[in-house]
Amino acid sequence: MTSVSAAGHEHHERLETMLDTLPAFADMLDEQPRPARLEERFRMIVRSMSGTLVPHIERVEETVYPELDRLMQSRHSMTQMRGEHDDIKGLVERLDTFGEAIKADALGPAGTVGLRRVLYRLYALLKVHLAEEEEYLRVLEHNLSPDEQAELVGRLEHAVAEPL
User: Fold this and answer.
1) Model pTM score
2) How far apart are CA 16 and CA 143, in angstroms?
């Protein structure tokens, strides 16, 4: 049986692999002329964020957070973490708005600064958020029976199995 902590950690590692590409992509924005692969890398990042990260967020809110609210009797409400999820989703939406400018090679100085800000905000927020989620997964592991963990892991399985 896979523990909740191990299953969550596995998925977080996969998310972090994708997340760790953001600073390198931000550095590409300074290269002149812009690299031919810039648009392709941008689309890959947006696809990963929209197709993997956002579904992960939604699944965690449906499965993990209600269980944590129950265990902690809402004393340590997951409201802050849900708020961070909203911030992350907003940044992913904002990221996507730069696509047309990148495609047309018309990002310009202001667009470059704006895109870089979104990339670094996503990176910083997600690094801290994933670390916090790891701590909450330990709470689940220490307070749920093996059968309860197995059930929760089963409900999370879809999100963990999403390709990156």
Assistant:
1) 0.88
2) 26
Which tokens sit at 45?
């990042």
**CA-atom Rg of the chain in angstroms:** 18
Q: Which two tokens stand for residue 19?
A: 């997340």
Interatomic CA distance for residues 137 and 115, integer angstroms: 32
Q: What is 134-159 written as a DSSP string? A: HHHHHHHHHHS-HHHHHHHHHHHHHH
| pLDDT tens, residue by residue, 33-80 | 888 899 999 999 999 999 989 998 998 999 899 999 999 887 777 999
DSSP letters for 23-89: HHHHHHTT-SSPPTTHHHHHHHHHHHIIIIIHHHHHHHHHHHHHHHHHHTTTTT-THHHHHHHHHHH
Q: For residue 75, what are the contacts with CB-CB under 8 A and spacing of at least 6?
A: none
- C-alpha 101/C-alpha 4 separation (Å) is 41
What the block records as the tokens of 66 is: 């209600």
